[in-house]
Design a protein that fits this description.
single chain; mainly alpha; Ribosomal Protein S7; 6 helices
Length: 155
């Protein structure tokens, strides 16, 4: 166990949109400390989303992130030699990070040419409540619903 709670680090907002949520997303997307490359990819994706939807790309991004955010998840718990999947509510900070990880992960698996196009495609799909990241959220919720009987084992 830790002696003290880990301090939350302050994340500076990104230069273009002045939004710390965008900074967190870019930090999650970044490889090998190449933040400028990750920012280019994100801004490129926002331009593509803006052109395709005729609206603000950032609003579509936030809507997509909101659609992918899970409310409950299942955690394994061993009780009397058997392992149960126990539905537990998700903390706010974990909700956001899970949604970002899913959006980025499923964007990378898409078949478009550039990462900006892949990310834009996944954001557009998630904002319309479709796509792989949204399906992942639905699967997690379905698992929690199916295992609701074990919720009395919650820790």
């Amino acid at each position: 166990m830790r002696k003290a709670k880990a301090k939350k680090r302050l994340i500076l907002p990104d230069p273009k949109f002045s939004d710390s949520l965008v900074s967190k997303f870019v930090n999650n997307m970044m490889y090998d400390g190449k933040k400028s490359t990750a920012l280019e990819v994100f801004y490129g994706a926002m331009d593509i989303v803006g052109k395709k939807t005729e609206t603000d790309g950032l609003e579509t991004f936030k809507k997509a992130l909101d659609n992918v955010t899970p409310n409950v998840e299942v955690k394994s718990r061993r009780v009397g030699g058997a392992t149960f999947q126990i539905p537990t509510p998700v903390r706010d900070s974990r909700k956001a990070s899970l949604a970002m990880k899913w959006l980025i992960g499923y964007s990378r698996k898409r078949n478009e040419k550039s990462m900006a196009e892949k990310l834009a495609g996944e954001i557009l799909a998630a904002s319309k409540e479709e796509g792989a990241a949204f399906k992942k959220k639905e699967d997690v919720h379905r698992m929690a619903e199916a295992n609701k009987a074990f919720s009395h084992f919650r820790f």
